[in-house]
Every structure is written in structure tokens, then in C-alpha cells.
Amino acid sequence: MLNSLPRAYLVRHGETAWSLSGQHTGRTDLPLTPQGEPNARRLGERLAGIHFERVFTSPLSRARRTCELAGFGSSAVVDSDLLEWDYGAYEGKTRAEICRGHPGWEVFRDGCPGGESLAQVVVRADCVITRLRAIGRDTLVFSSGHLLRVLAVRWLGIDGAMGRYLLLDPAGISVLGYQRELAEPVIRLWNDRRHLHDARGVE
User: 160, exposed or middle or buried, with CB in 10 Å at 0-12, 13-18, 19+?
Assistant: First the structure.
């Protein structure tokens, strides 16, 4: 596996109404917005020409639709480990609303009542990483923001809580891989959204 130095491309789903409003969207199955759909198509243009040995997507429709519009729907495998963090009682709430009842709340530290702890999300992320590395070639993953942030830091072998420092926007592309000289896991690219800008640099 280390000789081939495979890469894992991570794609956060396109824009939804709750990603715009800042509401925590775990298992609520929201569609893409009218802007989210063309942005998903632009992802396909950006990824065109790259061969992916396997494509995986979260079961949630926002990820699956992004995958389909990007042109990978027919080859994608649905993986339940790619579901977004289960926010439990905090589903649909903004951080400001949560902090009114739980001052200083931080999902990567505190988890969610009635939902998942960080440790539970890390278990799922580690399972995904094991599968990706076993393939030994480039792979493509469509999922949601917090899950992908945990997956990225676990790829590096560090504490899942460090995912709090990696912001990830809708339709952003990130690439995990290896440093060639040492074959150590690295983040090669993070939250790239150049494909969403026109010639004037305007989204």
C-alpha cells in the first residue's frame, strides 16, 4: 500500500438550507439548495480525469445527490459509517442556541445529549480509513462536514478533537495522502473551492 501512495479525496456535500443558517444537520435528510445543485456539478468538472478505484457516499440525500450531480452516482457505494455526527437533542439548533443552555459548548469536546460522543464518531471514521487504505489506490468520499473533519485528523493518527481546527465549507474538496519520502500520512489539500468561482473570482 505504501508503495502506491494512494490519495483519498474528500468532498463535503453541497449547500443546504441549514448549512446556510448554521443549524446543526446530523441525520435530518435535507435536499441541496438551488445553488447547491450547480455547485455539485462543478465538483464533477473539477474531478474530471481523475481515476478513482472506489467511490463512497453517505446514505444521506445531500451527500448522495452531490455525488450524483458530480457524475459518480452510478459507481458509488453507500457507506453508513459516513453518516454525519448524530447531534441528538441539538439537531437543527445553531451553536448560539445551544450555548444559551450549555455555555461554552464545543461538539468535539462535549458531544451531544441523546446523540454521539466524539469517541463514537472516531470509531466510524477509523473504520472508513481502514477500508480506504486497504484499497491501495485513489478513492473518493462524499459526506458531511464534522464527519470529514474527524476523518482527516484520524488519517494523520491524531486526536479526533483536533478536527475542530479544520473548517470545511459546502462543496469543498480535500485530499489526504502521504509524504513521498517517508510515506507518512499528510493532508495534501484542504477545503479547496476554486471550482465554485467564476473568472472574476466571484462565487
Answer: buried
